[in-house]
Amino acid sequence: MSQTLKRTARIVVVEDDAAMLSLLKDFLELQGHYAEVFSAAGNALATLRGAANAGIDLIISDIHMPGMDGIEFVSDLKQTHPNTPVILISAFGTDSTAHIAKKAGAAAYLNKPFKLSDLKEAIQVVLGQVA
Known about the structure:
Layout: E1 10-14, H1 18-30, E2 34-38, H2 41-49, E3 58-62, H3 70-80, E4 86-90, H4 95-104, E5 108-111, H5 116-126
Parallel strand pairs: 1-2, 1-3, 3-4, 4-5
């Protein structure tokens, strides 16, 4: 039986809800990943633009945020980081939202509330770590 070795990933999280941001950061770090967090998409985008090849393995972003939403964030991000996968999450999602997220360039989409095991699985699939 073959298993893919788990590796530490550098993951950026963009989430305007402080409790969810903290939960995601803690969860990712417990999984052995490095998590860099932002409470606003505009701040994350500015930082990421300044580091065109910063070794970011994955971005997890909420869709509904004040200022720049997650869809606009992904569209703008793909201009400078076209190969960086993004998982979009939303508490207000529908089938239409999932379609829009994929069309914008998201690698995966999860509706809140989601099980942390579902997030873990999505991360593994997106990073190609599933055996």
